[in-house]
Q: What sequence folds into this?
């Protein structure tokens, strides 16, 4: 954002009037007669006296203020109308009563006009009531859920089950269920949607109450209202959890004005408009418009009428002084929300409606320049804030409703289409394309706005927009990060998704623009975050976990590595202060506190700024306090350390940072301080763009990925309703015509399913256009590649890799999952550029880091293990694992073969089983054979992947087991130990289940116990399969008697196999009885899977045993 007035410079002039034509041509000063005509033309009197009237007073800049004061005088009647009005009680400024007029938990906006339900059915009323006359207020519906809007008296008592309209003397309209409520309920009105305006009208002269939806009357809802002494009605609303609305009692112009509509003629808003200020603002706007439509011609000595769209500000002193007089009175009025919306916004919208796009843009740009030039900073800020909020209220819910024609009904079943179904599908696809084109227009406008906010060349002596945006953006991320210790101010995830995609577009535009002017920089396709950003403290990551643990701990344990690799030395005093913070967060040592640099100083160096409240929260830790005060000494890279070269710096808060702190200058590298030797000397791009990219990745981790997953449910709902509708239509065809009662019910169900399917189909069109389009897929794919490059560069720094925030690995894993699972089948990941290379790079990261000792967080280690386990389930990703370098493959298998004790072994064992599945005895099935008989409908579940064994990784496993005398025994002993534990637990649980089933009294087995029982059985089978794989690949481990451990391992194996066979194969045993119960949750427990695994081991032992003999 440029500094005020920076775009235009006016030198000081002597505005002395003269009739010298030549001097007029040079200086722009006009003679007295022309100035008089001009000022009378601009400041015409309210009764519009003709400028040619001879009786008018001569005007100049000396007496113009007096004339302007007379022009802005308002009749006494208008001034008196601002007082108390009969029929209304309460404050003149009407808001929601957040102190005592509510029930339940509600979140109320700062202006006390917006409310969000935060409990089952909360209720709130206004601060002002009415007892006589005709009154109206408006409600903007922000969500279309369960709400009851209307009026109530002060004696109405509500609770979490009963709200407005559920008690006597309370009346409500419910557009969600399309009903009206007053103790009882009947059908009324039409259904509302997000963005609709509900007008609530009460006529206490006739005793009637009615509602309007988007300016259209819904008719009289209630008559014979109770009136008289003690009866006064408050606007009120009851709304369920997460529903939201915004009230307008008259603080802004009503959307559907009571004076222009016959259905509400004579009704007035509860809050009076500022009539006096409104009249003055309209008169001043008329003067301003006159300036734009009149041009001075000093050569001819006359006024020239012209179109306002052709007006240009050229710096003529006469015009500038005239505008200065206008804005002296106009500027204070433009800080009021009612006048901004009624006067300024209406004026700007009029400009947009009349001119061409080019003329409109030029004209609006000049109007904003004039506001910036003639208004004070605080006035401009208030005015533009109110203007943007008014535009947001006006257009936030403006519908884009293309004609989707006949609605398509998607189904996962592939079958031949009839002519009608083909017609419906094509019409639906055409509607989706029209919708997408309309949305693209809006998206492009949003990208253009973000480009303005990311502009770093508009400083003109002030602060550039990009650095203001960075400060706001970081605060936005902080507010939406979880784990604050208090309720976070969450941005709706739908907005996060849209914001992320527009931000990526604007970011890549500036990134490639910088590359065009700096050949040594990189393209956005090669973008990544340099690793020094994670440990030099220049970017605040709040309380987000690092790969190696808390930042304060890492700075203490890795201080030597920071000094040797990044030329960063931590101040010992700061380390001591951080240690004391760890011991006692509230009691800081006096010496450390006095020596610690002050957080910041206010202007003129007078007083320290107040400490941010979030910095003192108990959960923020100790790490963030250290972050905000840490002082580090940085030396010039690649030069010997010396005391004179040490530069004391400290990590600044987001508010304190300047452009130099981010971009750097001379020896200061800004965000890139502490560059490790592995990183190139030339910068990738501007440092500020790196921080924007870092924030975009953090935003994806906060809520975007979860929202992408939720949207998949829309497609699932469409399929379910399509199947339900198809089944209902089949039943209708088969139903006998004589059964009219059944036909009526089926027809009713068919109508419900069809309407719901049409609604979901429209919603699915929106989802595909705004969330799952090809362009959005490319954005997520770009983020995935950025994360992969960032992790690769961070890994090269050795121990400093531990400073990387965990969310980089999380985003790499989750974005791949989103691309694979959420965007299909419309868009396939295989179509993306560089798909095979990206899979291989991700495979290398998972293979290397799932057992990386630098990563200490339990959650992120589990995520890496689960991601690798999922990776080996699919042929294309398993082939990617096989394509990584051989040394990395061997290292991965070595980590998988590490002893199972004291680590999460179940996932590791499952990975080994997936590598073997398809090679074992009777192990080539996709679905367990016994389930195909009992549950044949589940045989084609998409989650069941065909076996895809890896002979390459099996060979690596065999080679490693043959190496060294201790590798195979330690691994196999741990497998046998876990098998003994898992099978023993399984037997103990089925004994409890059998005992519960044999009791005479009716009882139920806990579903969690059944799930644990089935899990132990599955673990036993998978451990047996790993033993089968080991015996097949390296039989000599058990059968080579020259090995000292072979006999012991074979004896243990035989004992366990004997135990399994005794428990499973004995006639009428416990296992048989539990299997025959067929309890839900124990479907996988059967003879086949465990006996086949044992048989495979025995067969391999016999085959290889005979060969060895």
A:
């Amino acid at each position: 954002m440029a500094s005020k007035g920076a775009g235009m410079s006016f030198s000081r002039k002597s505005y002395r009037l003269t009739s010298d034509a030549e001097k007029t041509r040079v200086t722009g000063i006009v003679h007295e007669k022309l100035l008089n005509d001009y000022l009378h033309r601009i400041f015409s009197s309210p009764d519009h006296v003709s400028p040619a009237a001879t009786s008018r007073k001569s005007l100049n800049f000396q007496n113009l203020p007096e004339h302007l004061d007379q022009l802005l005088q308002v009749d006494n009647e208008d001034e008196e109308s601002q007082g108390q009005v009969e029929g209304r009680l309460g404050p003149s400024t009407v808001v929601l009563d957040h102190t005592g007029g509510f029930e339940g938990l509600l979140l109320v906006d700062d202006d006390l006009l917006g409310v969000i339900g935060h409990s089952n059915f909360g209720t709130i009323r206004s601060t002002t009531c009415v007892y006589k006359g005709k009154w109206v207020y408006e409600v903007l519906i922000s969500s279309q859920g369960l709400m009851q809007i209307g009026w109530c008296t002060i004696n109405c008592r509500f609770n979490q089950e009963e709200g407005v309209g559920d008690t006597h003397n309370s009346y409500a309209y419910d557009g969600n269920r399309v009903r009206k409520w007053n103790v009882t309920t009947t059908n009324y009105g039409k259904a509302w949607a997000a963005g609709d305006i509900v007008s609530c009208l009460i006529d206490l002269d006739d005793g009637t109450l009615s509602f309007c939806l988007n300016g259209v009357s819904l008719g009289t809802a209630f008559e014979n209202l109770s009136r008289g002494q003690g009866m006064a009605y408050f606007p009120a609303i009851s709304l369920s959890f997460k529903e939201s609305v915004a009230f307008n009692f008259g603080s802004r112009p009503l959307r559907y004005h009571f004076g222009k509509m016959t259905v509400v003629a004579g009704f007035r808003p509860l809050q009076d408009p500022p009539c006096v200020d409104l009249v003055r603002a309209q008169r001043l706007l008329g003067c301003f418009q006159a300036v734009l439509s009149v041009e001075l011609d000093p050569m001819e000595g006359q006024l020239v009428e012209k179109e306002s769209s052709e007006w240009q500000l050229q710096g003529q002193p006469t015009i500038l002084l005239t505008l200065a007089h206008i804005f002296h009175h106009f500027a204070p009025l433009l800080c009021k929300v009612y006048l901004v919306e009624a006067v300024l916004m209406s004026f700007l919208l009029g400009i947009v409606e009349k001119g061409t796009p080019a003329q409109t843009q030029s004209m609006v740009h000049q109007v904003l320049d004039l506001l910036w030039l003639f208004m004070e900073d605080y006035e401009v800020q208030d005015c533009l804030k109110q203007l943007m909020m008014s535009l947001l209220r006006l257009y936030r819910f403006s519908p884009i409703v293309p004609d989707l024609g006949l609605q398509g009904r998607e189904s996962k079943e592939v079958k031949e289409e009839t002519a009608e179904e083909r017609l419906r599908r094509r019409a639906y696809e055409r509607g989706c394309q029209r919708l997408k084109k309309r949305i693209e227009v809006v998206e492009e406008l949003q990208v253009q706005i973000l480009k303005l906010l990311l502009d770093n060349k508009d400083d003109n002596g002030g602060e550039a927009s990009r650095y203001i945006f960075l400060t706001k953006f970081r605060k936005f991320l902080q507010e939406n990060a979880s784990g604050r210790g208090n309720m976070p101010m969450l941005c709706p995830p739908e907005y996060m998704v849209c914001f992320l995609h527009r931000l990526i577009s604007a970011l890549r535009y500036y990134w490639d623009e910088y590359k065009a002017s700096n050949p040594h920089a990189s393209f956005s396709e090669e973008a990544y975050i340099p690793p020094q950003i994670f440990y030099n403290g220049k970017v605040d990551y709040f309380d987000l976990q690092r790969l190696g643990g808390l930042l304060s701990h890492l700075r203490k344990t890795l201080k030597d590595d920071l000094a040797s690799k990044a030329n960063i030395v931590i101040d010992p005093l700061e380390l001591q202060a951080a240690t004391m913070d760890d011991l006692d967060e509230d009691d800081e040592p006096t010496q450390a506190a006095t020596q610690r640099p002050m957080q910041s100083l206010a202007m003129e160096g007078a007083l320290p700024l107040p400490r941010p409240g979030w910095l003192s929260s108990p959960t923020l830790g100790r790490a963030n306090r250290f972050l905000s005060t840490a002082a580090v000494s940085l030396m010039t890279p690649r030069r010997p350390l010396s005391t004179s070269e040490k530069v004391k710096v400290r990590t600044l808060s987001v508010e304190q940072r300047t452009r130099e702190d981010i971009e750097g200058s001379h020896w200061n590298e800004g965000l890139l301080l502490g560059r490790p030797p592995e990183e190139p000397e030339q910068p990738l791009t501007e440092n500020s763009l790196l921080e924007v990219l870092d924030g975009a990745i953090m935003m994806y981790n906060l809520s975007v990925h979860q929202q992408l997953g939720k949207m998949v449910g829309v497609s699932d709902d469409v399929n379910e309703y399509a199947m339900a509708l198809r089944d209902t239509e089949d039943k209708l065809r088969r139903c006998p015509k004589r059964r009219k009662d059944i036909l009526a019910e089926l027809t009713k169900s068919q109508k419900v399913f069809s309407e719901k399917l049409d609604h979901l189909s429209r919603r699915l069109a929106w989802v595909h256009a705004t969330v799952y389009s090809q362009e959005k897929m490319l954005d997520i794919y770009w983020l995935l590649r950025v994360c992969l490059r960032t992790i690769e560069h961070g890994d090269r720094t050795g121990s400093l890799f531990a400073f990387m925030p965990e969310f980089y690995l999380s985003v790499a894993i989750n974005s791949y999952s989103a691309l694979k699972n959420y965007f299909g089948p419309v868009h396939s990941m295989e179509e993306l550029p560089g798909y095979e290379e990206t899979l291989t790079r991700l495979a290398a990261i998972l293979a290397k880091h799932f057992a990386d000792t630098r990563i200490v967080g339990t959650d992120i280690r589990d995520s890496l293990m689960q991601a690798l386990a999922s990776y080996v389930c699919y042929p294309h990703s398993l082939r990617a694992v096989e394509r990584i370098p051989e040394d990395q493959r061997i290292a991965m298998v070595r980590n998988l073969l590490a002893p199972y004790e004291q680590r999460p072994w179940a996932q590791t064992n499952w990975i080994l089983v997936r590598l073997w599945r398809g090679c074992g005895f009777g192990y080539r099935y996709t679905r367990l054979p016994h389930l195909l008989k009992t549950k044949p409908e589940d045989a084609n579940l998409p989650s069941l992947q065909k076996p895809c064994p890896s002979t390459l990784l099996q060979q690596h496993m065999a080679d490693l087991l043959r190496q060294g005398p201790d590798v195979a025994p330690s691994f196999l002993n741990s497998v046998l130990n876990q098998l003994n534990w898992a099978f023993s637990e399984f037997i103990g649980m089925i004994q409890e289940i059998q005992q519960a089933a044999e009791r005479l009294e009716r009882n139920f087995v806990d579903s969690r116990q059944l799930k644990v029982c089935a899990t132990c059985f599955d673990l036993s089978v998978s451990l047996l399969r790993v033993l089968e794989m080991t015996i097949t690949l390296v039989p000599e481990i058990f059968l080579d008697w020259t090995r000292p451990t072979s006999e012991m391992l074979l004896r243990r194996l035989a004992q366990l196999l004997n135990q399994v066979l005794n428990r499973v194969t004995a006639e009428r045993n416990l296992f048989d009885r539990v299997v025959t119960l067929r309890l839900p949750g124990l479907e996988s427990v059967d003879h086949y899977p465990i006996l086949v695994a044992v048989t495979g081991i025995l067969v391999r032992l016999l085959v290889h045993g005979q060969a060895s003999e």
Q: What stands out?
A: The chain has 35 helices and 22 strands. The mean pLDDT is 81.
